[in-house]
């Protein structure tokens, strides 16, 4: 129990919000289950739904926790694998056997099927938390099922009475554990660490990589990563040769950007747009099948997707501090403020890149869903994307470094972006491009540039830090 308690503490330290929400949902499920045992039969569905969501959230956190626990050094501990197995048995008793006992007391039927369903939910949570790359494959499956609600209802009714359904679910559980737990138990040599600001967009999982955790990429991911590295090396060599021929301020800044942002050269940006654009196209096609679908929302999704890069900036700059000392000595600035100004000017290139990607994704959405007002969507998306990119760069450049604070800031930016986009679209639709667009430019861009200039002054006034992040 001591080992289990320590792993629970690790889980709470890494995902406190997830742990609290899962346990609150479990308490809510227990409350409705008690009322169900007292004879209120209508509450059984609410209790089962709350407990299923709690199980999924808890095991998603468990998977994320195991990513940091199962590092090569941990396997040197005595009986490490056996302790993990004991921890899994305790977890299964809490989240499978205990609810089954409650269901048995209440006289519920299909207990074996219920146990298998709980194991599937727990396995899916482990997969999404421990291996986000393969966990992302689950969502298209649910999207496709959402296209056929009548077929899905009939299928579930038939599967409920089939004696083979529990065994099929157990096979799915074994498959989920194979993709989630098995990669964590393999001891592999670590690959060369990539830049924290690489932004390859391979599943957007780079921002969640834990310190010391090996990079777990599949065959496709490794090939794409190798292609990104080749493009980054080629761009760096071009910038270096150009600076050696004619050393000026502009080419010096390009060289700094190639060092800080290796995958933000033109070729890598095009490759990233193609890769993410394929996923965006699939998502747009999927949501077109919803009954109450509004094509205007494509612009909001595109902007939110384009600014999802900026939280990585906050994490990456913290992780790169020890390496930035070499860059400081190479640049040899006369003052610390000059160095900070160089860093902020170099990172400002992320704003036009974000604007470009937002417009490209918006065009994808317009073409796929045949939006009725394409020019209005592009007009509003251009203004809002530029303003929110400036604001996101500002807040993440000087914002909180802790996980909780960074998450809160990111949520504020995302929901603020959605609100400004819908408000701007309504304003342009109501009073026209001249008045509505002028007001949108005045408010949105005025706020974005104001926040950026204030953040830049704050960043330049700070002393450079080269200490390694704690933990």
From TrEMBL:
<feature type="transmembrane region" description="Helical">
    <location>
        <begin position="346"/>
        <end position="369"/>
    </location>
</feature>
<keyword id="KW-0812">Transmembrane</keyword>
<feature type="transmembrane region" description="Helical">
    <location>
        <begin position="293"/>
        <end position="311"/>
    </location>
</feature>
<feature type="transmembrane region" description="Helical">
    <location>
        <begin position="167"/>
        <end position="185"/>
    </location>
</feature>
<feature type="transmembrane region" description="Helical">
    <location>
        <begin position="433"/>
        <end position="455"/>
    </location>
</feature>
<feature type="transmembrane region" description="Helical">
    <location>
        <begin position="17"/>
        <end position="37"/>
    </location>
</feature>
<feature type="transmembrane region" description="Helical">
    <location>
        <begin position="43"/>
        <end position="59"/>
    </location>
</feature>
<feature type="transmembrane region" description="Helical">
    <location>
        <begin position="407"/>
        <end position="427"/>
    </location>
</feature>
<keyword id="KW-0472">Membrane</keyword>
<feature type="transmembrane region" description="Helical">
    <location>
        <begin position="111"/>
        <end position="129"/>
    </location>
</feature>
<feature type="transmembrane region" description="Helical">
    <location>
        <begin position="269"/>
        <end position="287"/>
    </location>
</feature>
<keyword id="KW-1133">Transmembrane helix</keyword>
<feature type="transmembrane region" description="Helical">
    <location>
        <begin position="136"/>
        <end position="155"/>
    </location>
</feature>
<feature type="transmembrane region" description="Helical">
    <location>
        <begin position="375"/>
        <end position="395"/>
    </location>
</feature>
<protein>
    <submittedName>
        <fullName>Uncharacterized protein</fullName>
    </submittedName>
</protein>
